[in-house]
Design goal:
The protein has eight helices and nine strands. It is of the alpha+beta class and 196 residues long. The strands form two sheets. The protein has a seven-stranded mixed β-sheet with strand order 3-2-1-7-4-5-6. It has a two-stranded antiparallel ribbon with strand order 8-9.
C-alpha cells in the first residue's frame, strides 16, 4: 500500500495496564510523525507478541509462518490493521504467490506475527490512525492513554465505574455516551439479538 492514505507503523514496545492489570498494550509508532498508538491485547496475544519481540525471538529460530511462506513461495507485502470497533482490532494480510495477490483477514496478533516474521510493513489507514491517536498515546510521565473508542466493552464498564468512584462526572458522561452509541449500533446491525 504505502501511499499517503496509510501510515507505516512499527512496534515500539509492550506494557501492562496500571489500573487494569489484565490489560496489555502494544505501542505502535508512526514512522513518519513519531506519534504512538496503543493497541489493547488480551493475555494470549500479549504472550505471542512478547515472545516474538523479546530476547531476539526473531533471530533465534525459524518460525512456522516463515517456513510455510518459503515452502509455498508466498511473500507478505503488507499487513493492514483495522478496527471492528469497541476495542477489537483485525488485520488484513496482503501477500503474493507467483503473480497472484491475495488478501486474508486475521486477528491482530496473527497479522502482527506474520508481519514481524516476514519483515513486511505494518500499516493503518491514516484517517483511522488520526482518529485513534487524537486522544491516546504516551502522555507526560510515560503514562499511556487509550482513547475511549479503543476500549473493549468490559474495560469501558470498568472505566465508568472508576470515573463514578472518583467523582469524575464529565468522564462518566463521555463513557456513558460511548456505551449508548455502541448499544444503538449493535441494535441497528443485529436486531435479531435484541429479541432473544
Amino acid at each position: 500500500m504505502s501511499n499517503n492514505k496509510y501510515v507505516t507503523l512499527y512496534p515500539l514496545g509492550l506494557t501492562r495496564g496500571l489500573t487494569h492489570r489484565e490489560s496489555y498494550i502494544l505501542l505502535m509508532r508512526d514512522a513518519e510523525s513519531g506519534r504512538t498508538l496503543p493497541l489493547l491485547l488480551n493475555t494470549t496475544d500479549f504472550k505471542k507478541i512478547h515472545d516474538l519481540i523479546s530476547s531476539d525471538g526473531l533471530k533465534t529460530s525459524p518460525h512456522l509462518s516463515s517456513i510455510i511462506c518459503d515452502l509455498f513461495q508466498i511473500e507478505i507485502d503488507v499487513v493492514i490493521i483495522s478496527t471492528e470497533g469497541a476495542g477489537k482490532y483485525t488485520t488484513h494480510i496482503v501477500a503474493r504467490q507467483g503473480g497472484d495477490v491475495r488478501e486474508t483477514e486475521a486477528d491482530l496478533s496473527t497479522g502482527l506475527y506474520a508481519a514481524m516474521t516476514s519483515g513486511a510493513q505494518i500499516e493503518m489507514l491514516r484517517t483511522l490512525f488520526d482518529a485513534l491517536t487524537r486522544h491516546g498515546g504516551i502522555e507526560e510521565g510515560g503514562k499511556v492513554a487509550i482513547p475511549i473508542v479503543a476500549l473493549t466493552d468490559e474495560l469501558l464498564g470498568e472505566a465508568l465505574q472508576s470515573a463514578i468512584e472518583n467523582d469524575n462526572y464529565e468522564l462518566a458522561a463521555v463513557i456513558s455516551n460511548e456505551r449508548n452509541k455502541r448499544k444503538q449500533e449493535r441494535e441497528k446491525n443485529h436486531p435479531e439479538e435484541q429479541n432473544s
